[in-house]
Amino acid sequence: MTKIKQLAAITNPILSGTAGNDESGAQSGSLFFEIIGGVLQFMMLLGALIALINLIQAGIEWIGSGGDSSKLESARGRITNTVIGLIMLSASFALWVLVRDFLGIELTFTPLFP
């Protein structure tokens, strides 16, 4: 057995299947795209949660401004920046879907850990 075949024969007993001993997935590159898709899905979820928290805080800041124009402008700017961030997040997701469809990658996200 050559050294490359010996290294390919090493399997991970904890992560069997998708990431543990998926030799065909590793050779075709599908495992790489599954990992990238999982990371992007997590980052999109994290970005949406941060935007939601930021909108709630800006709304509370707006309500608590008490007519002070500087606090009101600060809250308005924060809401505007959050909406711009959500638009950028949506555009990056659309770009990922476009690249995925252009390359013909079939991705169904399944967590690597049980």
Description:
The protein is mainly α. It has one domain. It is 71% helix and 0% strand. It has four helices and no strands. It has helices at residues 3-8, 23-28, 30-63, 69-103. Helix 3 runs antiparallel to helix 4 (69-103). The radius of gyration is 22 Å and the shape is elongated. It starts with a helix and ends in an 11-residue tail after the last helix. The mean pLDDT is 77.
Quantity of strands, as a count: 0
Figure out the total of helices: 4
Largest sheet geometry: none
Give the helix/strand class.
mainly alpha
The helix/strand series, from N terminus to C terminus, equals HHHH
Span between N and C termini? 33 Å
Helix content: over 70%
Low-confidence parts lasting 5 or more residues at pLDDT below 50? none
Radius of gyration: 22 Å
Strand content: under 5%
Shape: elongated
Multimeric state: single chain
Mean pLDDT reading: 77
- Give the count of structural domains: 1
